[in-house]
Amino acid sequence: MLSKEEVRYIAGLSRIHLQENEVEYLTRNLAGILDYIDHLKKLDVSQVPPTSHVLPIKNVYRRDKVKPSFSVQDAVKISPHAYKGFFKVPQVIE
Amino acid sequence: MNLNQLTAHELIDHLKSKKTTPSDIYTAVVKEIERLDPKVKAYLRLTKNKPAFDSNSRLDFPVPISIKDNICIKGEEITCASHILEGFHPSYNAAVIEKIQKCGGILVGQTNMDEFAFGSSTENSHFGPTRNPWNLECVPGGSSGGSAAAVAAHEAIWALGSDTGGSIRQPASFCGIVGLKPTYGRVSRYGLIAFASSLDQIGPLTKDVTDNSLLLNIIAGHDERDSTSADVSVPDYTKSLINDVKGLKIGIPKEYFIEGMDPQVKNAVGEAIEVLEKKGAIFKEVSLPHTEYAVATYYILATAEASSNLARFDGVRYGIRCQPKNSRKGSIVDLYEETRSVGFGKEAKRRIMLGTYALSSGYYEAYYVRAQKVRTLIKNDFDSVFKEFDAIVTPTSPTTAFRIGEKAEDPLAMYLSDIYTISANLAGIPAISLPCGFSKNGLPIGLQILAKPFAEEMLFRIAYSYEQSTPWHTKRVSINA
After folding, report:
1. Contact B203, B162 (CB under 8 A)
2. Do B298 and B174 share a structural domain?
3. Does B455 fall in a domain?
């Protein structure tokens, strides 16, 4: 059973700040979904290999050739807060 | 009939015989959007860069197309129907947009969807729900509900959507049109805003099977910018429009005909099977024994991948940025949290949380790895059926379109509406939905056909044969503006 503390912890990992009413709602809600998902535990999968990807593609390589790419201007133009060709964020290092 | 009511292949014939011009077709579509979209709400916006019609151009398909709002068009706003991306204008075109523009396709507008494709009804859009053209009180399905409703309401000639667990096929079924999820890797996803990278695929939503094959011809193919796109040659799919199913072996999975299925859906699919049987197809009951685990498997894998893919929306590089309140100097983590809390809707938060939980230390093996193993079993079920059978038929959805609000507060009930479509994404196989009748309330019913990887030609052949013997694709919706 999922606790409110666990929900707050997962929200922290998800970088989402939840209001108290959201914590309550999601605790109930996620518990119901996890209960349904626990259905999978009925199966013995100890001998089954996992599938992460359906196509038989392994590593895809290409030549390391220099090709044109976005200019700095184009890349930062779309940012909500750019400054002199950089993405501006709050101070990270004290 | 007005130009906007025609199919793309009919319009191409009209253009060849000089009965109309690309500009007239575009105008007819835009006029219909202006007339009907205040009611249907299929579009989030029309493209800002209006087409320039050059009378000398000799392009293959100067036909208008509408695009789901998770496929990037250079210079046009894209939001994935989320608040968090509002104002974002991508700097490049998706591979499918390049291909469409290369053969002359005209981009009309961007269609509504569930936020980040999280949903089966288009009710999870930040900008409000799209309505089903056959009954405006009902949902169009989702998540590509805007694309499906636009095509059904003749506010679009054809459209692109994306399908992670049924998001092309289920809305196609609810709106009475044809929707294809190609084989995983058939279409490049370069420029598609990712939801679940091991499941997502772009595909066509069209008025009939012929148009569907034409649009797949345009968008299919290998692209080195999407390393998961398959280096498999692309046939001319229109060559598979053969009205002959004699001797084809088609399986009917017994696990799909379950309790909770609307009897009208069951009857319509049963009648469709009879039509194909009369044309010489051989039907036999088959078993896909792990079907009951598909929805649970999907909601672990898809949410885990989504939680990872959506980590990039943090208020730094694109979309909105929200400064934390109540603190004079917020940290960068406060900035991320505030932006994501304000920017993501309810279902997006729910899925990010679920996926983060499934990937978190202590639960990773129990949930994520277990789901990957069950995925293997589901894939094996299909592999063994396709050793003996050319295709499988099922309903696309257990019900017809439900009413707006009916499942909005019950996420599990909403997830279960994808029960017939999810397995194809887990197994990576192609699947098509096409109309096979109407309920007594006048809502469309969809037939789903599935085949082995890269056997889209088989889907088109069976779907085309069925379509030639039935009237459903010719039914036109009528809405009073």
Report:
1. yes
2. no
3. yes
Confidence of residue B55 (pLDDT cuts 50, 70, 90): low
Chain B residues within 8 A of A18 when measuring between CB atoms? 341, 349
Considering its fold, how many domains does chain B have in total? 2
Asked, for residue B276, whether it belongs to a domain, the answer is: no
Q: Is the Cβ of B327 closer than 8 Å to some Cβ of chain A?
A: no
For this structure, is B433 an active site residue? no
Residue B38 Cα, gap to closest chain A Cα (Å): 30
Q: B84, B78 in Cβ contact below 8 A?
A: no
Has residue B278 been placed in a domain?
no
The amino acid present at A84, given as its one-letter code, is K
Instruction: Choose the closest CB to A37 out of B300, B320, B356.
Output: B300
In a shared domain, residues B163 and B59: yes
The answer to the question of residue B413 being in a domain is: yes
Angle ∠(A4,A8,A13) on CA atoms, nearest 5 = 145
How large is the ipTM?
A: 0.95
Alpha-carbon gap: A53 to the closest alpha carbon of chain B (Å) = 6
Cβ-contact A18, A6 below 8 angstroms: no
- pLDDT band at B54, cuts 50/70/90? confident
B61 and B203 co-located in one domain? yes
Q: What is the pLDDT of residues A36-82, one digit of tens each?
A: 999 999 999 999 999 988 988 888 888 899 988 888 888 888 898 99
Q: Fold for domain A4-42?
A: Histone, subunit A (1.10.20)
pLDDT digits (tens, 9 = 90+) for B357-388: 999 999 999 999 999 999 999 999 999 999 99
| Same domain? B456 vs B307 | no
Q: What is the pLDDT of residues B314-355, one digit of tens each?
A: 999 999 999 887 655 688 999 999 999 999 999 999 999 999
Q: Which of B185, B230, B307 sits opposite A14 (nearest CB)?
A: B307
Residue count of chain B, please give it: 481
- Which of B397, B391, B7, B401 has the alpha carbon at shortest distance from B209? B7
Do B218 and B153 lie in a common domain?
A: yes
Burial class (CB in 10 A: 0-12, 13-18, 19+), B77: middle
Judged by DSSP in three states, B242 sits in coil
Q: In terms of domains, do B300 and B418 share one?
A: no
- To the nearest whole Å, the CA of B268 is away from the closest chain A CA by 30
Nearest-by-Cβ selection for A50 from B332, B333, B373: B373
Question: The domain containing residue B422 runs over which residues?
Answer: 3-253+385-474
Interface test with A, best of B356, B377, B386 (most A CBs within 10 A): B356
Stated pTM of the model: 0.96
B398 with B457, same domain?
A: yes
Residue B337 with chain A: CB contacts under 8 Å: 15-17
